[in-house]
Amino acid sequence: MKISFTINGQPQSVDVDDGNTPLLWVVRDTLNLKGTKFGCGKAACGACTLHVDGEAVRSCSYAVKFAEGKSVTTIEGLGTRENPHPVQQAWMEEVVPQCGYCQPGFIMATAALLDKNASPTDDDIDRNIINVCRCATYVRMRKAIHRAAELTQSSNNPANQ
Amino acid sequence: MRHQKSLYAIPILFLATILFATNFNTSDLSEASTTDSSTMTIVSDDENFDKMMAVLMHKRCVNCHPSDNVPKQGEDSHPHYFGMSRGEGNLGYEATNCNTCHQHENDDFSGVPGAPEWSLAPQSMAWEGLTRVEIAQSMLDPARNGGRSHHEVLEHLTEHELVLWAWTPGIDAAGNPREAPPVPVGEYVEAVTAWFEAGAVIPAE
């Protein structure tokens, strides 16, 4: 079964035996994009979060067939070393990661949140950022999310810089 | 002495009659109320109402008709993990919502259930904790059922893919099949249709 979609801005086609194969498996094992992590495998921890058409999705519970014709963004496509996404920049400024394993999922979930809500409150963060971090970096992440909101607003309005 | 013996015989005969009648009724009921995944208990005169409500009160339905804005999960109807709640529009929150995890089909790799239009029922359609009569009253009340006519309620109950998902609920993360409602889908559709055609009378209980 051939599935065609765009990933990180590049057109891509994959052949899979089963269209129900999780998108996560295809991203990691077929396309060799290892930034998206396997955590629980049952859409509970959020380590596998990526974007499909701009929406945060748990890719372990997302059949690759649903990606047909859509635009997929992984952590590798969010920003670059030279030009990191505001969420990545904020994560570095606040030195958020500890072991780091879950962080790509948190970053992708946060980027999706800021797309919808440019200035999230703590309550907004609590409701939307429900991934799991075994190192419990939640306090630093909260600071980084607020910082990312500032950076996003600054980049959208250079007069604020 | 002989007279005293005959006095004992009267209550013994009476007791034997009661025991026979009780035994007769019990065996009769045990046939009518045998339950497994394909049969259901008949508990009132309106068999169609009984069949319909046996389905509508099942966890596959009520889990998404919560009274506290918190979706329920699983066979034990526990609150949805990670604080997921109704949000605006019955779909969760702006960046983390039903479709973050639930798609249009069950996902057997992760055990995450899915169906078209996966969402909570609106708050006005809260059924959790209600009796079956209260649920039926709510279902027929345009002020609470989204302004639906009887015909539209019938369509929702018998044709909506999300409702019919209850009979193909998939497997959980451990690979265990989710429990389907206690009435086969065809029998349920027939019962609901017949109940509406008969005037959608809610029995007094």
Please give the structural blueprint:
The complex is a heterodimer of chains A (161) and B (205).
Chain A: E1 2-7, E2 10-15, H1 23-30, E3 49-52, E4 55-58, E5 71-73, H2 75-78, H3 86-93, H4 103-116, H5 122-128, H6 138-156
Helix pairs in contact in A: 3-4, 3-6
Chain B: H1 2-32, H2 47-56, H3 59-62, E1 72-73, E2 78-79, H4 98-101, H5 132-140, H6 150-159, H7 161-164, H8 185-197
Antiparallel strand pairs in B: 1-2
Can you offer a commentary on this structure?
The complex is a heterodimer of chains A (161) and B (205). Chain A has 161 residues and is an alpha+beta fold. Chain A has 6 helices and 5 strands. Chain A has 2 domains: 2-78, Ubiquitin-like (UB roll), CATH 3.10.20; 86-160, DNA polymerase, domain 1 (Orthogonal Bundle). Chain A has helices at 23-30, 75-78, 86-93, 103-116, 122-128, 138-156, and strands at residues 2-7, 10-15, 49-52, 55-58, 71-73. The radius of gyration of chain A is 16 Å and the shape is globular. Chain B is mainly α and 205 residues long. Chain B has a two-stranded antiparallel sheet with strand order 1-2. Chain B starts with a helix and ends in an 8-residue tail after the last helix. Chain A binds chain B through residues 20-22, 41-44, 49, 55-58, 60-63, 66, 109, 112-113, 115-117, 124, 126-130, and chain B through 81-85, 87, 93-96, 99-105, 107-112, 173.
